[in-house]
Design a protein that fits this description.
The protein is of the alpha+beta class and about 350 residues long. The chain is built from 8 helices and 14 strands. A 9-stranded antiparallel β-sheet has the order 3-4-6-5-10-11-9-8-7, with helices on both faces. The longest helix has 22 residues.
């Protein structure tokens, strides 16, 4: 099989991914990802994210409709932590620093039984507009250096609340992955006459011929050449934009449409409301590195934890110990499979 037993360079993370497509056929007697048949109510009075419900910390949700955001009651980061962002103390072996930041919860809908795949066109656009508003607001806070918007969806990845929602971690530091991706894009621009790494990756002939899943006027969905997950995809803009803040109305509409088509495609592929980790990679916003941040290109990553409708992708001994992820599905085959899905099969 062409491309099997092959290392592929991940240009954004500066590390190798292993493609081992034959491992997908390995006999399997491990844990299976069962499909739940339980009915989900439109409103759950025991759900802390539903309208009119009193949350665990005592606040009462308003009778909201559509997309709604609020501060996380149990944040992983807080500006109430002592010290300032530059207060790193201790030796190289025992260094500490404050975990400053804001954590936000983003509800996609008032309906407990909704998903991003099931929203109307107008509702989906409202979600994307909320992403833009939240990023723009948080990135303008002087003490914030990085804003990561994400969604954890599905019990398979440990979600504690099944109401349709995402989160934001706005941190006083640039995260480890963002540092890697920023440096990779800065180095690429420096060595390629200012070119954008992601725009060049999208335009690369092999990508165009074998890895594009879907496209519209302003964005394309691709399976990355060095995909680390079986059905990982990225949404890449056709022009270099650093963040959601740089996008106009037409681009937001195209992003909303293409995003929703992709999550529906996953639902059809896995024959369920598919579990997923979604990451919106906006440029860091630390002013000390403003010039480097301009080399950053926005992209959105989907990382489904399933390798097929019943099998999870686990990171076990070799991958955890080496940090070289093994992908059991060849990216070109994954792209072909995703491309061929009949979108008319989707039903909310």
């Amino acid at each position: 099989m062409s491309g099997n037993w092959q290392r592929r360079w991940h240009p954004l993370l500066n590390q190798w991914t292993l493609i081992a497509a034959r491992s997908a056929a390995r006999p399997w007697s491990g844990a299976m990802a069962a499909v739940s048949e339980s009915h989900t109510p439109v409103h759950d009075p025991d759900c802390y994210l539903c309208p009119r419900v009193t949350r665990a910390a005592g606040q009462v949700n308003p009778d909201y409709t559509g997309a709604y955001a609020f501060d996380n009651d149990f944040p992983s980061l807080s500006f109430d932590a002592p010290g300032c962002a530059s207060d790193e103390t201790g030796s190289l072996l025992t260094r500490t620093g404050p975990a400053h930041g804001h954590c936000r919860v983003l509800c996609w809908s008032e309906r407990h039984d909704a998903t991003l795949a099931s929203l109307s066109t107008e509702e989906m656009l409202a979600v994307v507009t909320l992403w833009q508003t939240e990023y723009t607001t948080l990135s303008r806070i002087e003490a914030i250096a990085n804003v990561l918007i994400f969604e954890n969806k599905g019990v398979e990845i440990g979600v504690s609340n099944l109401h349709p929602h995402g989160q934001i971690y706005a941190t006083s530091f640039v995260t480890d992955s963002a540092l890697r991706m920023r440096q990779a894009q800065v180095d690429y621009a420096a060595n390629h006459n200012g070119a954008s790494l992601l725009q060049d990756l999208l335009a690369e002939p092999h990508t165009q011929a074998n890895l594009v899943v879907d496209t519209n006027t302003h964005f394309s969905v691709i399976v990355p050449f060095a995909a680390r997950f079986a059905y990982e995809t990225w949404i890449i803009p056709h022009r270099h934009v650093t963040s959601l803040s740089d996008m106009n109305r037409a681009e937001l509409q195209d992003l909303a449409m293409l995003y929703q088509r992709q999550v529906r495609r996953y639902d059809i592929l896995f024959n369920r409301s598919a579990p997923n980790i979604t990451l919106l990679h906006n440029a860091p916003c630390d002013q000390a590195n403003a010039q480097s941040n301009r080399q950053w290109c926005f992209h959105l990553g989907f990382q489904p934890p399933l390798r097929d409708p019943q099998k999870m992708k686990f990171l076990a001994g070799f991958e955890s110990g080496s940090n070289n992820i093994v992908n059991p599905v060849q990216p070109e085959q994954a792209a072909e499979q995703l491309r061929s899905i009949d979108m008319m099969r989707y039903s909310a």
